[in-house]
């Protein structure tokens, strides 16, 4: 029996040595045939696997092709279409790079390089796909769309933060990324419109940063302070300060008008929670978390998925309320406002001159 055991152990050692020799020996390079899923999947199956439609895929490819195109066709360079598929598949699944590479018949190293080449190229389109309403007509259209939700007037956006999971980056600043729930994350500030599209995003703060701190250092606050949006309002939760342009819920409502204000505020603001849910379900990499070693590699991915989310939302537009109805309501409130300019608290003004009139 001892002899048999010794023989078995010797055989295992020989097998291990043979495997080590094969791993250390330079293996011949093999290039697998590249898979172009545009030629394999129909429109439905393509969208299921890559989140966006074939039409939007071609539109996006046209915009970033010059940025991701290799300078040469030698050495079997990966075409831009397959590079974009690799990035989209990674965003949609959050899977390991080896799995993503196998899906598109490329190496793990190539998948890594492609994701960090394509993501900045998509993120560079931020000004085209993520933009605030600036003109008076754009602002009024956005206010009408929010009014349809719960009859809250003058709203152009809902603001909140969401955590995107990451691994610890190590070093002396690693604990800055641990949030109050105990895991490592980036705290991303987002403003959305009534169509659940992202119209402003701040993606650079660690998970330990408070929502109000991010807001106080953001561009959106500076724009509102400079009166770029007229009498327009943002809606936020109780973690934000109550400002003339930022309406937060009342903590202890007692009067009927205050309860009505809270109901309208919360129902309207709930759209941003829906947006976060849709965004993270579409792009599992945001909820599963990244395994990159630096924050600089994750930030372009967050912006890229926000752009892709907006592209995917373009066909899901809500019915806009009759403009005359909203304009008449605004005209009545503004007429009262002229006679009550001594009211400094904008939230109190809405309570006394609008929500009380709805009872």
Helices, strands, pairings?
Blueprint lengths: L1 H23 L18 H8 L3 H15 L11 H14 L3 H7 L4 H16 L2 H4 L6 H15 L4 E11 L19 E8 L5 E9 L4 H6 L2 H7 L7 E3 L10 E2 L8 H27 L2 H4 L6 H19 L9 H16 L7 H10 L4
Helix pairs in contact: 3-4, 3-6, 4-6, 5-6, 6-13, 8-11, 11-15
Structure notes:
The protein has helices at 2-24, 43-50, 54-68, 80-93, 97-103, 108-123, 126-129, 136-150, 211-216, 219-225, 256-282, 285-288, 295-313, 323-338, 346-355; strands at 155-165, 185-192, 198-206, 233-235, 246-247. With 359 residues, it is of the alpha/beta class. The protein starts with a helix and ends with a helix.
Report how far apart the termini are.
Answer: 92 Å
Topology as a string of helices (H) and strands (E): HHHHHHHHEEEHHEEHHHHH
- Low-confidence blocks of residues: 337-343
Number of helices: 15
Major sheet size, sense and barrel closure: 5 strands, mixed
Q: Which class do the helix and strand fractions yield?
A: alpha/beta
Spatial ordering of strands, largest sheet: 3-2-1-4-5
Give the CA-based shape. Answer: elongated
For the residues shown, what is the average pLDDT? 86
- What percent of residues are in strands? 5-15%
Number of strands: 5
Helix content: 40-55%
Radius of gyration in whole Å, from Cα?
26 Å
What is this entry, summarized?
With about 350 residues, this protein is α/β, with parallel strands linked by helices. It has helices at about 1-25, 45-50, 55-70, 80-95, 95-105, 110-125, 125-130, 135-150, 210-215, 220-225, 255-280, 285-290, 295-315, 325-340, 345-355; strands at about 155-165, 185-190, 200-205, 235, 245.
